[in-house]
Input
Amino acid sequence: MIPITEYAGRDVAVFGLARSGLSAARALAAGGAIVHAWDDNEAARENAEKEGLVLSDINARDWRGFAALVLSPGVPLTHPKPHRVVELARAVGVPIVGDIELFARAVNALPAHARPKIIGVTGTNGKSTTTALIGHILKHAGRDARIGGNIGTGVLDLESLHAGAHYVLELSSYQLDLQESLRCTVAVFLNLTPDHLDRHGDMAGYLAAKRRVFRNQGAGDWAVVGVDDAYGAQICTELTSGARQVAPVSAGQALSRGVSTLGGRLYDALNGRAELVLDMREAPALPGRHNAQNAAAAYAACRALGLSTREIIAGIATFPGLEHRLERVAEIDGVRFVNDSKATNADASAQALAVYDRVYWIAGGKMKDGGIETLEKFFPRIAKAYLIGESAPKLALTLAGKAPSVQCGTMDKAVAQAFKDARAAKEKGAVVLLSPACASFDQFRDFEARGDHFKKLVAALEEAVSRKASA
Output
């Protein structure tokens, strides 16, 4: 844990008691603050009490006594309208911060020589894989790497600060909106496509939030920027004129300077001369063009941190992959099962559908703006779609006449039917792919719970088939 001592002896409101809120409440209490923790959700409050947190209904308190409001990133700050606690805080001038800002202030309070290195990773897609990959490379090379933020462990639950540590943080747009003083030694911006527009108002607001990852960087810091979309290309051009050093990365473009992947090969041109450093076939846990960009970004970030090419390539080659992102679950009677539950929008699912030639596709959930129309070029790869959740009827309409589909409703029915059809077809390389292209909140707590349920169902299938074969 990283104790937050800034508010020692003062009253601090913490609103939203999911992972980051719980983490912030514990860190503040450890640093001597008087914590007033609350959540509108009764189940969240009950869970917080089980975690040992003392609750305090901040709705019934005089807000003028609070030194700060620590807001969980999931609580609306500006759009579609500010949450009432945000309005209350603003009405009496109470500063609003998030857990990333608390972390940043704790780092900045240290003498310069005692501060750890911070690697911040953002973008619409690929954040989690790139964050995990950078952390794995650092650990494989013997560095002290702590991985957290929007992935795995809340940032304030990571091990305490010291100069030799590398904090590799996945940063969502919601988290970036709540920070002012984070300085990233290496800031990674992967890509930008429409997402979370209900929370940011429009693409301009979404882009502005993501760009905050570069806030406070100075001479000696690095910006690693994906240039395969117009937003990233523009950012890269603008940053090049600043004090920081910039490393463009691409999955498909030959770069005169930067890191790129072409034809399944990774090239390092950071010094101005392209050198082949890795055949991506040596990294089986990173299939597809999107993972080629993730690998290029991770390579560039680790080079910026001073690792040698040999150390980085060894780390990439041994990366085991990320849970819930193109995770290879099992192969049963020649049918492969792949868990891509983290694909919560169409662009993320496009990356998965591009990898496999023939898929029995499980999709659906809480649909985001735009639906799945952008996936039409992949419809010929779909042997059949098995649609779940509240979006199933709309998805079926989009697929009508373009790819066969069935509305299964539940994950249980979808997995059973997809396996039955894939096994009966006896097609070489058939894949049952969970890549929902939708959020999970209509049926599951989060995408992790959705992916875990898929894996549980696949394990049960595997056991049943094995039991039948041995009978």
Q: What stands out?
A: The first strand starts at residue 11 and ends at 15. The longest helix spans residues 447-470. Residues 124 and 193 are 6 Å apart (CA to CA). The radius of gyration is 23 Å.
